[in-house]
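Exercise 7. Given the encoded structure of a 97-residue chain, write a plausible sequence.
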């Protein structure tokens, strides 16, 4: 883990659920729901409390290897930033902190 980088997890108040009507995943919280694309769903699934932002970016670059790594990096960081701003994904302190 990079120095100072926190691990990311879905907020305790949020739940990732499949919406059979919309045919896609949604991230639900008490105040709202957020419909997710397939790629955003993958990013949310990687927010399991064990991975940092850099880990999540690396996993997505590996999974979507046909894509431009720098664009994937920017896109994943943008999704994570938006989810953190909405408090749907939270930072957790790393071990030993």
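Solution.
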């Amino acid at each position: 883990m990079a120095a100072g980088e926190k691990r990311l997890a879905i907020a305790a108040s949020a739940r990732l659920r499949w919406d059979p009507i919309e045919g896609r995943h949604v991230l639900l919280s008490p105040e709202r729901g957020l419909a997710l694309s397939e790629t955003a769903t993958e990013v949310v699934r990687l927010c399991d409390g064990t991975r940092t932002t850099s880990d999540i970016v690396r996993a997505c670059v590996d999974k979507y290897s046909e894509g431009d790594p720098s664009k994937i990096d920017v896109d994943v960081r943008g999704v994570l930033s938006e989810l953190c701003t909405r408090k749907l994904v939270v930072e957790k302190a790393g071990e030993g902190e």
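Remark. The chain has one domain: 7-90. Students should compare their own answers with the one above.
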